[in-house]
Automatic annotation (TrEMBL):
Membrane topology: Multi-pass membrane protein
Family: Belongs to the DsbB family.
InterPro entries, alphabetized: DiS_bond_form_DsbB/BdbC, Disulphide_bond_form_DsbB, DsbB, DsbB-like_sf
Function as written in the Swiss-Prot or TrEMBL entry: Required for disulfide bond formation in some periplasmic proteins. Acts by oxidizing the DsbA protein.
Places the protein is found: Cell inner membrane; Cell membrane
Periplasmic side: 28-45
Protein known as: Disulfide bond formation protein B
Organism: Methylomonas rapida
Length: 167
């Protein structure tokens, strides 16, 4: 099995995993009509960045260790955003930040730095829980997905070294 699984395929599978996560997010938004909050959008951007890095690594097929470390770092940034989202959802109601105007309004009327800060810190709408599956909210599952993506990315280093030691 290891002989047929090379790092190019490994990274491409990671890219497909990220595409699946983004597809599920689109399903929740457009079919289930769940409106994404600023932190949800930030998490999607982190998934997209991780996926694009995986695709680049699969195409380039060089510098496995560097791509794996950068992929893990991107996934851990996304995990940090997800962890903040989970934390906001568990705050007592009197400690939840106020809701902000919609992102479209913010993009049109606020400086880019303020918009990015809003997207990364979250607001009151980020504390709303839209659904729970097996005891976890969507941001909780996204946190797990990011941790798995980071582990998966680092697995490319192991796969690369294991394939070099095989006859």
């Amino acid at each position: 099995m290891l002989a047929t699984l090379n790092t190019r395929l490994w990274f491409f599978l990671g890219f497909l995993g990220c595409c699946s996560l983004l597809g599920f997010g689109a399903f929740l938004q457009f079919v289930e009509e769940l409106e994404p909050c600023p932190l949800c959008i930030s998490q999607r951007l982190a998934i997209m960045a991780t996926g694009l890095l995986f695709l680049t690594a699969a195409i380039h097929n060089r510098g496995v260790k560097i791509y794996a470390l950068i992929g893990a770092a991107l996934a851990l940034v996304g995990a940090g955003i997800s962890a903040r989202h989970v934390w906001l959802q568990h705050l007592p109601p009197d400690q939840v930040p106020e809701c902000s105007p919609g992102l479209e309004y913010v993009f049109q009327n606020f400086p880019l730095a303020d918009t990015i800060k809003l997207m990364l810190t979250g607001t009151g709408e980020c504390s709303q829980i839209e659904g729970i599956f097996l005891g976890l909210t969507i941001p909780g599952w996204t946190l797990i997905a990011f941790l798995l993506l980071a582990t998966f990315s680092l697995g490319a280093i192991w796969l690369n070294s294991a394939s070099k030691t095989q006859p």
